[in-house]
Predict the 3D structure of the following.
Amino acid sequence: MQPRPDLSQLLQQLRDDPGFMEQVQHWQTLPARPAQSVPFPTELDPRISEALKRRGIVDLYTHQATAYSLVSFGQNIVTVTPTASGKSLCYHLPILQALTHDAKTRSLYIFPTKALAQDQKAELVELIAGTGISIKSETYDGDTPASIRQHIRTAGNIVITNPDMLHTAILPHHTQWVAFFENLKYVVIDELHTYRGVFGSHVANVVRRLKRIAAFYGGKPQFIATSATIANPKQLAEQLVEEPFVLVDNNGAPTGRKHFIFYNPPVVNAPLNIRRSATLEVRDIAGRFLTNRIQTIVFARSRVRVEILLTYLQDSIKTPLGARAIRGYRGGYLPSERREIERGLREGEIIGVVSTNALELGVDIGQLQACVITGYPGSIASTWQQAGRSGRRQGESVVVMVGGSTPMDQYVLKHPEYFFESSPETARINPNNLIILVDQLKCAAYELPFGEGDLFGGQNVTEILDFLVEAEILHHAQGKWYWMSDSFPAHEISLRSASQENVVIIDISERGQERVIGEMDRFSSLTLLHEEAIYLHQGIQFQVEKLDYAEKKAYVREVQVDYYTDANLAVQLKVLTEDEIRDQGSSSLGRGEVSVHAMATIFKKIKFETQENVGSGPIHLPEEEFHTTAAWISFSEDLFQTLGKDEVERGLVGLAHVLGHVAPLFVMCDPRDLHVVPQRKAVHSGAPTIFLYDRYPGGVGLSEQVYRDADVMLQASDRLIDACPCESGCPSCTGVGYPSSKRLARALIQCLVDA
Amino acid sequence: MADTSGTMLKEQLARYRSHILKDNPAGAEKIKSAEDTHGPATPPAVTLADGPPSPIMTVEHRFALSHRHGRYGFYELYDVLNHWESLSIDHPLKPKQVTARDLVFFDTETTGLYHGAGNLVFLLGYARFEGSEVVVTQHFLSSPAAEAPLYQAFFTRVDDAKYWLTYNGKSFDWPQVRSRHTLLRGSIPALPAFEHIDLLYPTRRLWADQLPSCRLATVERQQLEVVREGDTPGQMAPILYFDYLRKRDMDVIWGVLTHNEWDVLSLISLYIHLSWKILRYRDSEMASDRECFAISRWYEQLGHDGLAQRGYEKIALRSGPFRQPARLAMGRLLKRQGDWQGCLEWWEEGLSEQILPSEELLLELSKIYEHHLQDYRRALDYAEQARTVWMGKQRSLRRHPVAADSPHERRLERLRNKLAGGSVEIR
């Protein structure tokens, strides 16, 4: 028997495999980088430097040293460095040093998830123990036993928590945290880049509340943030905290050699330019790594894809550890399941993980050698984060990104320079989204009454306070607004999900053994948990027997079928306000508020292996209505005469298909957050129109940027359609099934661009 | 939003109303239902406290000592205090070196049941003994802007009290008051220092397994013979208070004040009631066997073995459902003291009366014989009986037990070895 090849040998095998290399669109080797270090600062307490030396750290990377000195000068800082560059020392070091001078000092560490907080606590406790200094650091989250909570509140030097806990448990109960807030000197915001969109907009308001309460107790904490690579870390930090920040980006950490392979699946249907399914390609590529016992992480874009890949891989890879050696990991799993998987990865009992982007975060899962990405993750930053899961520290590693047929994937695969050379995405938040702001003002008013002229986030909020008085939530007396309701607002406001109420998924396979196996937001449940939908959990198929939409419960039963389900969502749009309009040739661009009515209509059953349609059925669920912001492109009604009615419609559908994929590249958001809807006759104007609307009620600023940069997006769409080798439309450009849609879509673009 | 003018913001707020106020759909309905239930509250006879007009309202209501609230007259408190005084031991319900004047019977009404900084205390009510009268004082927050003077008035008037008596005040009312105190930082006097007697805990000890709930209203009805007529339910208080703030109409809120007054008066009766039970626990007229047993266990936990023993003994020698538990408890107490023979007497006698002996008791007996009296024969006998009971239990669960699987096998084997004079393994 031949010995198993190691990673370098395996990579050489791939290079020698013409079948594989034919599909490789781009192979980039990122060179190893040596460390850049400087000695410990002279004033650093010797107990700390000795403890670091015992852990093998004899000097500091340049970025750590810069962070240390800026923090000691009282600056707010944000550090930007790749995964595994020792970023946590950037805050541990100045804070521990401060504690050697003043033992009363309190610090708050905020991590986006509980799992990350646990991980960091373990590391910090070890470091503190090494110094021998008496410093109490504890996590304060849903798992903290009631018996030690009181002690943490009154005596914890470093309290490690997450934004949700800060929002629901710490801030509303600040009167139990007096000693903490009176001495709060540092607030650490780790994984800053995760605070974007709805979540980030909420967290910015939680920070406003935190600062408001700190000020009440006479404090003004200093902020230390760390971020993965994004285009605007300093801007994001300043938007989130509303104070000036200094950027630290002189990364001095070493990295190992990394191979980055762009892989495009073979074309199986030339006229339609249909490529082999990325999922199948990923199965084969991941299979090559896994059979050679190379620890591999596979990323898929959706929950459904994760489950499909998991099923494939568990079936095809036989390991001595059995199917349990390859595991799924995604948002819908219960925390206990996730913890077990994280441990299995670290300890090596698990050799493969199939994950959604939940693992983008810096949870320490040890050193994986290979990473296989199914489809472009939607953003440059996200791709680097996922790619960072392999070869975190040193040594050779490989990332294979397998493209899908979508226009976005094809654009990126064929333009590697877009990925390797352009700057990564901008993280965008809109803390003043009206719905978020009002929700957060309720929480703030609960915590401390508002006085006349009090600002929130630098602005006057009197109008909103009066609105809440009128709604009988606040009471106005002698120049102050008081919370006057018997509810607890933070419990009703979730920082993370657009719809407040999640649908709970209950497994009823065994009578008397019914159990909750996960949850899902209501909007997603329309298309994923309708009756007869196939729901996948840990690779096990469940069929939804009943969706009790009013009670928000989905009852599922285990089944074994060879298909998955895919549902259609019909959307109606009405323009409520036109905030901006600009004419462009015979067409116009607009921006404003819209009402969206979404209704799930039918679902199809699609066979795994062949992707063919093997049945369908209607979905009977109520319409969901919400208000949001949108940008739209209106074409002249004259086109009905010059092009023909059907032709206009085909062109709209085709262009909408392209824009749905191209716009997120430029707006730099998750494609799911920006919906694109073509309408032959828009209700407000009667003209043919394409709407691009923000998925979150009230919007988080995406449509504003679509409006601003529409020209660039349309030009890019035009180039993409032009460059696509198909004849008259394929899944990689304008979609299938509409004859001459390429030509028609380009004709529409011309109406705008030629102006 | 930042660049929108006031009117536009207003329009926007109106448009997004359904998103923003999804959780408060029925504000108007709530008020209506409030009006339906609170009924025509009749204001009690009150005298407003003297002094300059202030934003807080203080209501006083005086009762003669002879006034009966349920089964007790208030004057009985003096008796109770004398009895506590003459009891030489410590007890959580025993105030030390006090007169009736040193006690404050305290209860609050708040705008919500959640702990948290937004929960407002709008009524501070308490009863105190003053000479020949019991005076109920209520400080009512007529506007949320008046919190500082409210606490000023309150703390000044209760500053001299030594003991506060509450019902669930340790985890609810007092933390709320402390939270408000923190929020009013600096503008009001320091928190008063006092001893706190929370009557919820003794109530649970005595009656938790007997009452449908330990809510004060239930305890009143079942134990104190207090009958409330036209009472405003406590959970209505927040809504009525919000209604009051909008209408500025005291008629809306009188029901809540009356409710609170009943609560603090009931605290007096409850304290008298609990005290008599504890002080006269062996008097069958005063305390049932169940109560006597619960009080004896409490004494035992407090370290007053003698009082506990006398209580157990009384019940153990009577017939009734607590005869057996009392014998077991008695044996356990003696065993703890190392009185093996005394313990065996109670337990073996108890055993002879049981139709189905308990596995645990048999095991306990086996241990005493093995480890303390070195009588392996008897120890083995009891261990075998324990196994028989275990087998019976398994069968009744429709399992098919094998003797060798019983949890007592190791003990049995060890005892057989010891009897056979084999190697003696010390546990």
User: Anything to note?
Assistant: Strands of chain B lie at 47-48, 56-64, 68-69, 72-73, 103-110, 121-130, 133-141, 163-166, 195-198. The mean pLDDT of chain B is 85. Residues 358-427 of chain B form one domain. Chain B has three domains: 24-279, 281-354, 358-427.
